[in-house]
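Quick one - inputs below.
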Amino acid sequence: NAGVMQNPRHLVRRRGQEARLRCSPMKGHSHVYWYRQLPEEGLKFMVYLQKENIIDESGMPKERFSAEFPKEGPSILRIQQVVRGDSAAYFCASSPRQGPAETQYFGPGTRLLVL
Amino acid sequence: GESVGLHLPTLSVQEGDNSIINCAYSNSASDYFIWYKQESGKGPQFIIDIRSNMDKRQGQRVTVLLNKTVKHLSLQIAATQPGDSAVYFCAENGQAGTALIFGKGTTLSVSS
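Output:
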């Protein structure tokens, strides 16, 4: 029973390049959440998606960041024209249903380093 | 926000001791709380959860206590083992009930 899968696990980009982070939720889960974690800090919510829909993007930076969860395939977090401040660990979580008491299960994360 | 004196960024214990990790949450309307364990280089791992209609919940070697009056959550780990060494985060459900709001982590170090 595979858990949440993320790839790549590590990603190095130069300033100005694009970063694409992928997340496959747990089997049977149709709700995906993206979080960002800066060194020595807790996770900060970015965006919540269901299949083909963005439900809550209140934590997403207004520019350069976008997310999608297509009908087929993994959820993608895309960062255009990366800057050094984008260096962080990006975690994806999934849950089977929507609701305040639905446990979110996390993947291993993608560690992005911007040179 | 955090209550001064409740949150310790680090906690060091001896193997076999009981550990208590504290957390002050921010939103009095939150009704669901989770404790996560994060080991170095890994994602947060679910430990135990509690709903606001409860004040205590027990799992295997872990107990979560909820005090809604002072907006305080604690995680108790019995007979702490070296494998328990990690950063522990509390999380509450956000205003919209979807986003989790994470507290500041506590790094637990267990020495044998």
